[in-house]
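Review form for a predicted model. The reviewer records the input and the model, then writes brief findings.
Reviewer: anonymous (R2)
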Amino acid sequence: MLNTHIRIDYIPTQITLNNYDGLTDPKEHIQNVRSSLELVIQDNHNMWKILLMTFKGAVRAWYNNMESGSIANFNDLYIKLVGHFSTSITAKESFNELFGII
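Model under review:
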């Protein structure tokens, strides 16, 4: 897995973020990006720009094919990304389903 190395000049640390290709849970990826950046960036607009830099493959193509202006903010991007790549979200098994395992 490739990493995107982002250096933010006014912060005395380097943050490493994994790329997202659409094959894993998009909610987990966004949460990892947010938790890595929240301590140093409180502005969702900058977080949105950094999140975009982690997109590759099918996710990059999906984003590039979106209509200009169709995303207004970070939360809008979150909703659309999760909605589009929701098939990559691992379903949690319920307690009752575990009893059916043989």
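Findings: Residues 3-8+24-89 form one domain.
Further findings: The helical segments are 26-37, 44-52, 57-64, 74-84, 95-99.
Recommendation: see findings above.
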